[in-house]
């Protein structure tokens, strides 16, 4: 028997919707599984289309050099296409499509 993935809750503001983000998925992928399409393009951490502000929580990245500067990181900006939740998150994203 395998352990279920740890999953954290992500709250999208100002939409007010939440979804579960397991350790095995990026925040972007987890949102898709919940029927929430966040802005995206490259999905590999370079184009910055998905850049959004995280007002609470902690993430780690799948890649070594995601396209977000140290200053942006310090201000809370993340790239959800390559970020994995390490705690419950609150992110600010406009233009979310509910699919
Ligand atoms: S979709 Fe391109 S950086 Fe996230």
UniProtKB/TrEMBL annotation:
Domain of life, per lineage: Bacteria
One Pfam family, short name: Fer2
Cofactor: [2Fe-2S] cluster
CDD domains cross-referenced by the UniProt entry: fer2 (cd00207)
GO molecular function terms attached to this record: 2 iron, 2 sulfur cluster binding; metal ion binding
Keyword terms of this UniProt record: 2Fe-2S, Electron transport, Iron, Iron-sulfur, Metal-binding, Transport
Entries under InterPro entries matching the protein: 2Fe-2S_ferredoxin-like_sf, 2Fe-2S_ferredoxin-type, Beta-grasp_dom_sf
Domain 2Fe-2S ferredoxin-type, chain residue ranges per copy: 6-97
Family: Belongs to the 2Fe2S plant-type ferredoxin family.
Protein name: Ferredoxin
Species name: Paraburkholderia solisilvae
């Amino acid at each position: 028997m395998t352990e279920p993935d740890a999953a954290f809750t992500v709250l999208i503001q100002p939409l007010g919707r939440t979804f579960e983000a397991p350790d095995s998925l990026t925040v972007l992928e987890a949102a898709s599984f919940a029927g929430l399409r966040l802005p995206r393009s490259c999905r590999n951490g370079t184009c910055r289309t998905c850049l959004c502000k995280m007002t609470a929580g902690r993430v780690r990245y799948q890649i070594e050099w995601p396209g977000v500067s140290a200053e942006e990181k310090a201000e809370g900006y993340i790239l959800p296409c390559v970020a994995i939740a390490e705690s419950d998150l609150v992110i600010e994203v406009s233009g979310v499509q509910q699919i």
